[in-house]
Amino acid sequence: MAVRKEEVEEVLAAMAELPPAYRAALTLRHMQQLSYQEVADALGIPIGTVKTHLHRARAALKAKLAARRVN
Q1: Among 7, 9, 20, 3, residue whose Cα is nearest residue 60
Q2: Helix-helix angle 47-70:36-43, to 10 degrees
Q3: Which of 39, 41, 45, 48 lies deepest, with the highest CB count within 10 Å?
């Protein structure tokens, strides 16, 4: 249980380092479980932009987590 909590905290810390637009899209899609269209509506951006933000946010998050594990 403690390991799981540490992993969640690590992910949240890495998310905090993302650009605000990426963080918002990621939070709405994965934490609030909104659809792509709902995220687009909530942020006032086209659905294609939501998909781009999510793709870039996931890639950046993956890189940040990998870098944290190396250090």
Answers
A1: 20
A2: 100
A3: 39
d(CA 62, CA 70): 13
* Residue keyed to tokens 């810390």: 13
How far apart are alpha carbons 67 and 34 in whole angstroms? 29
- Token pair 């709405």 in the structure block, residue: 28
Return the structure tokens found at 35: 């659809």
3-state helix, strand, coil in the chain (%, to 5): 85, 0, 15
Q: What is the mean pLDDT of each run of 10 residues along the chain (71 residues)?
A: 82 94 96 97 98 97 88 65
